[in-house]
Amino acid sequence: MLGAVVALSVAFGSLAIIVILAVGGWVLAGDRSSFAATFDVAARSWLVVNAVPLEVRGGVVWLPPLGATAALAVLMMWGAARAVRVGGIHGTARLARFHGVATATYALSALTIALMAGGLQVSVTWLFAPVIGALLYGLAAGFGVLREAGLLGRVTARIPFYLRRDIRAAATGLAGLAAVAAVGILVSLAIAWPTVAAMLGDLKPGWSGSVGLVVLSVAYFPTAVMWGVGYLLGAGFSIGAAGVVAPWHTPEAVLPAFPLLAAIPTTHTVWHLVVLLTPLAAGAVAARTLTCDASLNSWLGWGKRARMAGVAGVLAAVGTSLADGTMGGGLTHLGPNPIVVAGLVVVWFLIGSVMWEFLAKWQYGRGAVQPHAEVEVRVRSERDGGVEGGPEVDSGPEPEVDGGVTAGSTSAAT
Asked: Which of 33, 315, 331, 400 is the residue whose CA sits 20 to 30 A from 358?
């Protein structure tokens, strides 16, 4: 019962927040549309945040605002964890029952909202809403439940050690790549601020419309970061009929009037190719984090680095697939191609790993302790659960104890 209450609170509480924002904009803008139409817009926005595709006359609309989706996932984790803590739910069976009831309830809530959001111009496939809603809530709330119950470490311990090490290294390199993309977008927006001001002047959205554009820009900023990652890798990203944006190509058509799109360069120079050094640096950072105990002089060393690069490619494909969508009409394909991104990540990270290998050898120099000799003890310590970042100290065998008196003290007394 508690799981159902938590899921209903998250589902309809988040819907209430979107309805309040929509009604506030409706009142301030003096729109002549009805309240029912405003509620339909809010319900459809809720479905978009939950990554549920909508069907319109121009095609399919599916491009989740990853910022808003991440905020909703955090709310799901917090609500589930708090319910477990306050409700005193313990034991694997009770936790599984709580999570199952909550997930099923959220799926039914998503189906209910989808049925309410349908209309003549917009429709929702009734199967997508509960399935995607259950998947999103199940993953987010499940993480919160495991963490609150202290079972998260037990679950991650089932992952092989080498795979955990690869995931950590790959995630570190990709996080650095995403950070560079985010900074680049902000800098580009600052440079193109006159274009943004002219765009707002042409749109004349008013006070409420300007606030709405800001909210949408913040919600879609992580999505734009995924597009920026594709740009840095050289894969680029598509903007529908406007074409592909990449270091070697700029769109020729007029872009849609949206503030974040003002960060896209309108002219191409050869200096744009310099950004291709970023994924090389990210691969080197990942190799530095890998703490691999085998050099490139053996096939084992190449295999371990290739496996890490493959893990990075899978993670990049999953992340960019969430930013690869469509808005229908002339915006049929938006975002980077996840398959191309995954392949380029593997290539760049493998080359970056080789670069780091030679850089490390040059740094230590001839006759110095090779990095793999130091790393070997560190890897063994991590595998055995020792202190990370340094070798374990062997203090020798423990003295035998007999009757509370050590063997050494007994011989001394004798």
From this structure: 315
CB atoms within 10 A of CB 20: 11
Terminal Cα-to-Cα distance of the chain (whole angstroms): 70
Helix 35-49 and helix 92-117: axis angle, to 10°?
Answer: 140
Answer yes or no: are the C-beta atoms of 293 and 372 closer than 8 Å.
Answer: yes
The model's pLDDT over 17-34, given as tens digits with 9 standing for 90+, comes to 999 988 877 776 655 667
Residue 300 has phi, psi (to 5 degrees) of: -65, -40
Least confident of 45-49, 97-101, 145-149, 368-372: 368-372
Q: CB of 18 within 8 A of CB of 49?
A: yes
The CB density around residue 126, as the number of other CB atoms within 10 Å, is 12
At residue 188 the predicted structure's pLDDT band, cuts being 50, 70 and 90, is very high
The DSSP secondary-structure symbol of 272 reads: G
CA dist., res. 103 & res. 172, Å (int): 31
CA gap 348, 279 in Å, rounded: 6
Torsion on CA atoms 80, 81, 84, 88, rounded to nearest 10: -160
Strand partners, 325: 334
Residue-wise burial string across 196-227, b where 16 or more C-beta atoms lie within 10 A, e elsewhere: beebeeeeebeebeeebbeebbebbbbbbbbb
pLDDT at 323: 94
